[in-house]
Design goal:
Blueprint (H helix, E strand, L loop, with lengths): L16 H34 L13 H33 L5
Helix pairs in contact: 1-2
Length: 101
């Protein structure tokens, strides 16, 4: 087998301090948006199981055990989202502490 041919890539990126800060803030905002979608999906999961989701069917055959399993799943997901929110808070604080030029 021959060795792969990897091209020599030397990108030159020229952005100023303001662009860097704006890109970092945008990345935080997009991550927050993604987490908001996850929270909404978890809420819809509970609504679907309870039969309160608009346009959805009722799962009348769900037992208390099934409901507790769904609750445990949602709780775990929300705990993970909270952890990510804390990391984003640290990231935002670090961006806001970038010294002036």
């Amino acid at each position: 087998m021959s060795m792969p041919n990897i091209p020599n890539v030397t990108p030159n990126i020229d952005i100023d301090r303001t662009d860097v800060i704006n890109l970092l803030l945008a990345s935080i905002a997009f991550e927050e948006l993604g987490l908001a979608h996850l929270i909404n999906a978890e809420a819809e999961k509970i609504q679907a199981v309870l039969g309160t989701l608009e346009g959805g069917n009722s799962f009348s055959e769900c037992s208390i055990g099934d409901l507790l399993l769904i609750n445990k799943s949602v709780r775990k997901t929300l705990e993970d989202i909270i952890k990510k929110e804390m990391l984003l808070q640290f990231k935002l604080e670090n961006v806001l502490e970038i010294p002036e030029e």
